[in-house]
Design a protein that fits this description.
Elements: H1 17-34, H2 49-54, E1 58-63, H3 79-93, E2 97-100, H4 109-118, H5 122-138, H6 155-169, E3 171-178, E4 184-189, H7 190-199, H8 217-225, E5 230-240, E6 245-247, E7 266-275, H9 281-286, H10 295-305, E8 308-318, E9 328-335, E10 346-349, H11 356-359, H12 384-397, H13 400-405, E11 413-420, E12 427-432, E13 444-447, H14 453-461, E14 470-471, E15 490-491, H15 506-519, E16 523-528, E17 534-535, E18 548-550, E19 556-558, H16 596-599, E20 600-604, E21 611-616, H17 624-627, H18 630-634, H19 646-653, E22 675-678, H20 686-699, E23 712-714, E24 718-724, E25 730-731, E26 737-739, E27 748-751, E28 754-761, H21 773-779, H22 782-791, E29 799-800, H23 807-820, H24 837-855, H25 859-876, H26 881-891, H27 896-905, H28 922-925, E30 930-936, E31 939-946, H29 952-960, H30 963-968, E32 973-979, E33 983-988
Parallel strand pairs: 1-2, 1-22, 10-12, 22-23, 24-29, 30-33
Antiparallel strand pairs: 3-4, 5-6, 5-7, 7-17, 8-9, 8-16, 10-13, 11-12, 14-15, 18-19, 18-21, 20-21, 24-25, 24-28, 26-27, 27-28, 30-31, 32-33
Helix pairs in contact: 1-27, 4-5, 22-23, 23-25, 24-25, 25-26, 26-27
The structure holds one RNA strand of 77 nucleotides.
Length: 989
RNA sequence: GCCCCCGUAGCCCAAUCGGCAGAGGCAGGCGACUUAAAAUCGCUCGAGUGAGGGUUCGAGUCCCUCCGGGGGUACCA
């Protein structure tokens, strides 16, 4: 495969892999020495305003933060980096000041797991991995500003991660505060909330009438906890014994397992750090309109946030048990269909609903209770208390997985109580059933079997009346319902002395009933969200320590900013306490809790109370923390007084005067990174968390931009074939031989003579189909590898790696090389003669096409156009300098090393990195003749050469006079469609 | 089940506004170079666009139904 050995004595100057390597290494050294890709900053410690002024508009290009894997890169990993590098280099040649840098996301579970597996300290393995990855990427010739690199594990970086945590901790969300843009709601310093409590402007929550100063420290802390954007809370969380840590909702699959490692996850009540991302739910959903992202990812985020408009409605009920037995209270439900309130014939509470106990009467069932309502457990069905207790116990023992896998078969038990439908006044039975979830809405529903599929199933199974309140038309008001009718229509059977909705449309009825019931204080229009607060603590070693201590009363204190960073201590045993993955009753044990000399400290927090004893927080942050803001640090990595100088943030990420394409009219641009490229797997994790932090920092006045990523492009993956033998074991894919099948048959595959079976999917060491970039550098060189990856197809689609196809990219570069350099003598062989008309036209058309393609990230078609142009030049035998130089500049973003070399051999000093990109001359694109296609009834029947500026009338006449057209139109002409100059379609009678 | 995306040559992919189905690459075939092979170079073969229907003068492109592949989501009231 390598032609390293094929450089014969006759062609010592051929562009071989060896030649490519020599060229590439020497230019990489030169770029590094000269700091070619360093981007000047307008402000901060590196301020070079003169250099900034000397360049054109800024452009901030970003790749998703890589995690330095222990096994090194495979050929799929650099795809996005090459794409962003091509885009960056293209824009440098257009004169823009381009910032492109790469750092490392080095904290977190994978790094720690790799260290545990190899029995080494995570810092050691992580640093080794980063060294290897840096080497692999440097060899690829990426034009990063290497001054701007860092890793999340650097104390000088995580100092600021901890600082941001403190800003969030010391903030609350004031939903009534007016933002500069006129919207409502923003984060404010917690001190301003304390001031409101102190002055009495804001009453204490829960009807507490004491003055703020009368509260103890612990009581004050408790109150503030209810407001802080980062807070501890005792709540049901996702405990994963197999990983020894808790996980956020976003890290748990819908099968109820950990996204990483696929271990079972259990719900446990534990005290954990949370981030109040729910406060930002509206803005996170609304502002998706303002960014240029793939629609698919926007939809995924909107679904995750899960905003739905509806109403909270109170259903009165008389308590049947408990201290307040006999008194009346309300069961509050959330519904998106208040228009169907008249059709609510029963209610359902989640098994965990706190009201259940007081709804179940002592003694027997109410007279006439349907046997089906008493529960599936015959032994427990004698009394409501026994039946409900049995049902709740059974439900509590079910995992989320079991609840789901049991499918749609509805189960439930009657509580023995009836509530009152507030609009009909009718008593309706209240059930406990596990198809209602405590975690959504109020954990209780009004069930409308006529117009909700789940309620219909339940009503059918338990013989509950079904009432139609929506019909396709008034005529069908009493048509029987064979299924829940969920379509649009007109409201029927919905009148009482409370309200009359009959005849209204669904949307009108919703508005009407909410208005009526709000007046009576029975309901209120409301918005409900699916998103929950973000669980932020992990019981692992390899993460940022929280800058938090607890005093002897258990009150939370933030470390003063001057005491940051709080460094991660070196510990003898950094591995997590391991558990049986299925042991739901295990409890997390953070490794840091095993270091008492670090945990128990005496500190002066600078609060005037002197040195006191404290206990440190022993949880660590999730690896999302470091990746939530790294893009900001690239802008000003050496700044030790701020996360980023405001001048740098405004310059690199500030808002543009015009909004992104496709934004609604009147939209204000949110600013942010100009191009962000990465895989879609972080659609609701990293991309949502980073947006949240960015908005908090914006609210607190640290950032001008409102979004982190103005344009996000989701790249496809490079995948590969893998092969298994008869036992299902993977065999080395590189050694498999393909045998073509007969016509219409699949090919067959053998390895070492035995038949093997092909599958398609991810690249991985364990699948034995991994190809490393290093192998490509050795066999072809980095430029060939770059050209191949960029020419495989559109950046956004996934496509299969095919090593044997890489040679096509090499042949192209060889042909380009040969057009400039004589393989035998090394002499430059271009001619100074001007290209002919046809080649000139092709050149300028190519320039225009390549510019457009690069701008729109269509690198595959740009390369195809360059191959075409190069092929035209090759056919001439001798290459005109004008065309060759333009080609060298145009290929430079994709294949920068060979371009530098050829550019220099063509007699230019100064390099191609900042050479101006060729400009198309529109006057030279115009051809003297164009081919006009003549269609008869839509089928191509003739062609004619015409002038490009021929008029429609001239062309029509010309075409109608042609023999073939006259022959076809002897019976007359129905119509003639003229699209001058390229097409005429004649339709005969 | 629901929602979204994608089906063009043996394979990866072009066709930008509804206007000649083919730009580019791989593989295959033939030829040149070679003692021979590899590499290289030149030439060349190759689909009617997943299936069916519709709109249109004209459909890969727009609409409907179905089939196949991928992704998201799943009792979210």
């Amino acid at each position: 495969m390598s032609d390293r050995t094929t450089t014969s004595n006759e062609t010592p100057f051929r562009y071989t892999a060896q030649m490519a390597q020599d060229i590439e290494l020497s230019w990489q050294d030169r770029w590094e020495e000269e700091g070619t890709f360093n981007a000047p900053n307008p402000a901060g410690p590196w301020a070079e305003p003169d250099k900034v002024a000397a360049r054109g508009e800024k452009l901030c290009v970003l790749d998703m933060f890589p995690y330095p894997s222990g096994v090194g890169l495979h050929v799929g990993h650099p795809l996005g980096y090459i794409a962003t590098d091509v885009y960056s280099r293209f824009h440098r040649m257009l004169g823009r000041n381009v910032l492109h840098a790469l750092g490392y996301d080095a904290f977190g579970l994978p790094a720690e797991q790799y260290a545990v597996q190899t029995g080494q300290h995570p810092r050691k393995t992580t640093e080794e991995n980063m060294t290897n990855m840096r080497r692999q990427l440097r060899r690829l010739g990426l034009g990063f500003d290497n001054r701007r690199t860092f890793a999340t594990i650097d104390p000088e970086y995580y100092r600021w991660t901890q600082w941001i945590f403190l800003q969030i901790f010391n903030s609350w969300y004031d939903a009534d505060a007016v933002r500069p843009d006129g919207g409502l709601g923003r984060a404010r310093p917690i001190a301003e909330l304390v001031a409101q409590f102190e002055s009495g402007e804001r009453p204490l929550p829960g009807g507490d009438t004491r003055a703020w100063a009368q509260l103890s420290d612990a009581e004050q802390a408790k109150v503030l906890e209810g407001y802080r954007l980062a807070y501890t809370s005792e709540a049901p969380v996702n405990w994963c014994p197999g990983l020894g840590t808790v996980l956020s909702n976003e890290e748990v699959t819908n099968e109820g397992r950990s996204e990483r490692g696929n271990f079972p996850v259990f719900r446990r009540n534990l005290s954990q750090w949370m981030m109040r991302i729910t406060a930002y739910a509206d803005r996170l959903a609304d502002d998706l309109d303002r960014v240029d992202w793939p629609e698919k990812v926007k939809v995924m985020q909107r679904n995750w946030i899960g905003r739905s408009a509806g109403a909270r409605v109170a259903f009165p009920v008389t308590l049947a048990a408990g201290e307040r037995a006999g008194s009346t209270t309300d069961i509050e439900v959330f519904t998106t269909r208040p228009d169907t309130l008249f059709g609510a014939t029963f209610m359902v509470l989640a098994p965990e609903h706190p009201l259940v106990d007081s709804l179940v009467p002592e003694g027997g069932w109410p007279d006439g209770t349907h046997d089906d309502w008493k529960g599936a457990d015959a032994e427990a069905s004698a009394t409501p208390q026994a039946a409900v207790a049995a049902y709740r116990l059974a439900a509590s023992r079910k995992s989320d997985v079991e609840r789901q896998t049991e499918g749609k078969d509805k189960t439930g038990v009657f509580t023995g109580s009836f509530a009152t439908n507030p609009v009909t006044g009718q008593p309706i039975p209240v059930f406990v059933a596990d198809y209602v979830l405590m975690g959504y809405g109020t954990g209780a529903i009004m069930a409308v079997p006529g117009h909700d599929e789940r309620d219909f199933e339940y009503a059918t199974k338990f013989s509950i009346p079904v009432v139609r309140v929506v019909a396709p038309s008034l005529d069908e008001a009493d048509a029987p319902l064979a299924d829940a009718y969920v379509g649009d229509g007109v409201i029927v059977n919905s009148a009482s002395d409370v309200a009359d909705l009959n005849g209204l449309g669904v949307e009108e009825a919703k508005a009407r009933i909410i208005a009526e019931l709000e007046e009576r204080e029975i309901a209120e229009g409301t918005i409900n969200y699916r998103i929950r607060d973000w669980l932020f603590s992990r019981q692992r070693y390899w993460g940022e320590p929280f800058p938090i201590v607890y005093d002897e009363d258990g009150v939370v204190h933030a470390l003063p900013e001057e005491q940051l960073p709080l460094t991660l201590p070196d510990v003898p045993d950094y591995s997590p306490k391991t558990f049986d993955p299925d042991d739901a009753n295990s409890s997390p044990e953070p490794p840091l809790s095993r270091v008492p000399e670090w945990v128990e400290v005496e500190l002066d927090l600078g609060d005037g109370r002197g040195r006191r004893r404290f206990r440190r927080e022993t949880n660590t942050m999730p690896n999302w923390a470091g990746s939530c803001w790294y893009y900001l640090r690239y802008l000003d990595p050496a700044n030790d007084t701020a996360i980023v100088d405001p001048g740098n943030e405004r310059y690199w990420m500030g808002t543009w005067p015009t909004p992104v394409a496709g934004a609604p009219a009147g939209t204000k641009d949110p600013g942010g990174v100009d191009l962000y490229v990465g895989g879609v797997e972080h659609a609701v994790l990293h991309l949502l968390y980073a947006r949240f932090w960015h908005k908090v920092l914006h609210d607190l006045g640290y950032l001008e931009s409102e979004e982190p990523f103005r344009k996000y492009f989701s790249q496809g993956y490079i995948q590969a074939y893998a092969y298994t033998d008869a036992r299902g074991q993977y065999v080395p894919a590189a050694e498999v031989e393909e045998h073509p099948g007969g016509p219409g048959e699949e090919p067959t595959f053998t390895w070492g003579g035995q038949q093997v079976f092909r599958e398609y999917g991810k690249i991985g060491k364990s699948l034995k189909n991994s190809v490393s970039p290093d192998e490509m550098y050795d066999a072809y060189g980095a430029d060939t590898f770059r050209v191949y990856e960029m020419s495989m197809g559109p950046l956004e689609v996934s496509k299969p790696w095919e090593t044997r196809a890489v040679v096509g990219a090499q042949r192209f570069l060889q042909r380009l090389w040969r057009n400039v350099v004589d393989e035998a003598t090394g002499e430059v062989v271009v001619t100074d003669d001007a290209p002919d008309q046809a080649l000139t036209t092709q050149l300028h058309r190519t320039i225009q096409g390549v510019r457009d393609d690069f701008e729109d990230l269509r690198f595959n078609t740009a390369i195809a156009k360059l191959i075409e142009l190069n092929n035209s030049v090759t056919k001439l035998g001798v290459a005109p300098r004008e065309v060759v130089e333009a080609m060298v500049l145009m290929i430079a973003p994709v294949a920068p090393h060979i371009a530098e070399e050829l550019w220099s051999r063509l007699g230019h000093s100064g390099g191609v990195a900042y050479a101006p990109f060729p400009e198309a001359d529109p006057s030279k694109i115009v051809e003297e003749q164009v081919t006009c296609v003549i269609q008869i009834k839509g089928k191509v029947r003739d062609r004619v050469e015409v002038a490009p500026d021929i008029s429609e009338d001239e062309l029509r006449e010309l075409v109608l006079a042609r023999d073939k057209v006259r022959a076809a139109t002897q019976d007359g002409i129905r119509t003639v469609i003229v699209r001058a100059p390229k097409l005429v379609n004649v339709v005969p009678m």
